[in-house]
Structures are given as structure tokens and as C-alpha cells.
Amino acid sequence: MVDSNYREELKQYIPFWDKLSSNEQEFFMNNVLDLKYESGTTLHGGDDDCLGLILIRNGTIRTYMLSNEGKEITLFRLNEGEVCVLSAACILDSVTFDVNIDAETDCEIFLLGSTAFAKLASSNIYVENFAHKIATERFSDVMWAFEQILFMSFDKRLATFLFDEYIKIKDKDNVIKLTHEQVAKYIGSAREVVTRMLHYFANEGIVEVSRGGIKILDEQKLRDLTK
Amino acid sequence: MVDSNYREELKQYIPFWDKLSSNEQEFFMNNVLDLKYESGTTLHGGDDDCLGLILIRNGTIRTYMLSNEGKEITLFRLNEGEVCVLSAACILDSVTFDVNIDAETDCEIFLLGSTAFAKLASSNIYVENFAHKIATERFSDVMWAFEQILFMSFDKRLATFLFDEYIKIKDKDNVIKLTHEQVAKYIGSAREVVTRMLHYFANEGIVEVSRGGIKILDEQKLRDLTK
Which among B69, B97, B128 has CB closest to A129? Predict the structure, then answer.
């Protein structure tokens, strides 16, 4: 339980505060904890874990997927004033996946434990809606992250291939003598996709595309794309 | 506006029906449309499109991401009795991404247009909560899809997809009637990659590939590959 001095601060985090009855407000205050996590510690570690609703007072938490082989994919980060609801996935029937959550910096949080959160969400539709709404916002964050991962990598792949080829022929005429079809085969893509991205690179002044091949105009920009 | 005979059918789709005032119920009935889409048509095509809430009476719709390069990644499919809310993304502040939605088969739907849906969602917290809850369920679907794409090896991904399809058609003729191109779209890969892996599966006696589709020969081996 937190000191009553925290009441005003808490209200900032939760738009449903005014929709709580005075009993529910008391219940909330009596069940919320203020906690500190050191940088690098795990707040929420997967399936068997259901911490509750996290309100970040300061610091940054990072949410990520972890494969069986230990591969990590960062989904989103949350900062001061933001709320994490995936740490209370057990409360929401509609959330059937689990994620990992670490403190990326030292953090201070308010925590409404899962049991108390479940009780409020089941008795008050505004609390339930808040949880679903926050989850939907995180859905948007995750879609953005996946777009980067799944779609943005192609320019990097193509740039890396071109840069490697360029290193081999540098100081001759800077022209990579390959057709788009050949480039596509080397990097496991389709010719049209390669052509479209090369036109994009050409518009950026990175390459010049001609029948003879692909001329590298700006080594530094190309190198930057490979990073 | 649909015939009042539809009222009972509509109520099955929307758990918030009893939370609507009688005026809101009338408003709903007066603003819902029954529409048909042919297999392959686009229901929702991206940023500039905000159809509204879709209730699927029969058929299957497919939701996918589309990259600038034309790469498709299937996020989830919805069937009879299910509700799609991403077709009304403009109504929900918390949804900041957009997706594409196609009719995968001939479909009959009820549509509550985005203006009417926005009006109900802003006046009735149960409608708003329903929308956020459905969006959160789709979040779970999408997380599942991304786990497959990002963490599973390709043979496992393909086997999992085939096994899921097989379960649906089992005891008919065990033939999944999809082209390699279609399979590639569903699992976010390229046709050549799918074809190569199917030939490998065929050599292993797991499937038989023909013009008519993909016949499952050895359910146990296929199942083993999904693990």
C-alpha cells in the first residue's frame, strides 16, 4: 500500500479514476504498491508470471519476445507516465500470448497486483475498457516493430550485397556488372523487387542504374544503409 | 438497413446488444447493411479506407500486411460468427496501423458503417470496450503469426500451416486445394521456397503435390514436423 500522498500522482496515470466509486478508489489505493527495479532486472518473465498493472513513475521498461533458442525481438519500450498491461495478461482472456519485460534503466513503478486488478476490471467496465484500450495501443506498437523487421530489411539486404560487390571492384570503374535478375538470385528475392529498390537508391543519389550494371556513386550512404 | 428478421441473427454476433438502449438498438438496426463479397475481392485496402465493423455471416476473410515491395504477410483469418474491427481502425485512436482485408471465399457479412459505429462507441462504453477487446484478440492472433514467422524454421512453419489446413478438410479427400503461390502468401514466404520445400516433403512421402492441390499422405510425419 502506498502513502496517501501518492493519490494525486496515481490519478494522473489512470483516466478511469473518476469512474471508480469511492469504495473502488479506496480499494485501489489499498492495493497499489510502489516498487523499484534496478536496470537489467526482469519484471515479467513469461507464462507463469502475472504481475499486474504497471504504471511507470520513471525509467524505461523493454518488452520483448524470446524464442526457445534464445533469440530476442524487442516489441516496444515504455517510459515515464506510461502503463503496461501485458504484465497482467492472465487477467485478460483476449491476451493469449506472453512476453518478457525487463527494466532497461533503474525504474520506479506503481503496481496494482493482478488479483486486485482482476477484481476492479470485473466490477467496473471502465477499468476493463482501459485495459483493452492500452493493449490495443501496444498492438499498434508491435505492428510498427514488425513492419520494421519484416519489411524494412530488404533495403539493408540489397545494400549489403552491393557494398560487398563494390569492395571487390572498387577503384576500377565502380560499376557492378550484374543484371537485376542476377542480383535477385544472389539475395534470394524477385527481380521486380530489386529493380524497385535500385530506383529508390538511384533517387537517393546512391547508385546509377544503366544497361551496363549498377554504378556506386555514394559509398558512404551505401555503407550507412548496411548498418 | 437490414430486414427486421435479421435482428435475432445480429444479436448473436454482438455481446453488447443487451447493453444498448432501445434507441441504440434501433439505431444499430437502421444502420447495419447486409453485403456480399466475391472470393478474391478486397474489403479494406489500406490507409484511406474505413469500412466499419464487419460481422461475418459466412465465408472467410483474410487480413494481411502488404509491404511497399508487394510482399504479403498473413496476420489472421476470420470465419463465420467472427467480428473484424481493424476495418474500422479510423474509429479507434489506439489503432495507428493499417492492414489489408480480402474475401478469401465468397462472403456474406453484416456491416455497421464507421460513422454509425463511431456514434455508438462514443455514447456506449460497452461498445467501445467490445471494439478494444476484439482488437486485443486480434493482437493475440498477430503475435502467434509473428512467432511462427520469426522463430520457426521454414519446414516447421510450412508443416504447421499444412497441418492446420489438413485438420479442416480431413476425411474429405485429404487434399488442400491451394496453389503454392497461395500457400506462400499465407505464410509470408516466396512461391519458389514453398515449392522447394513441398518437393522435399513429397520425397519424404509426407505429401503428394498435384495440379489439384496438396494431398496429405502421412499425417503422423506431418504432425512430427510441427513440433
Answer: B128
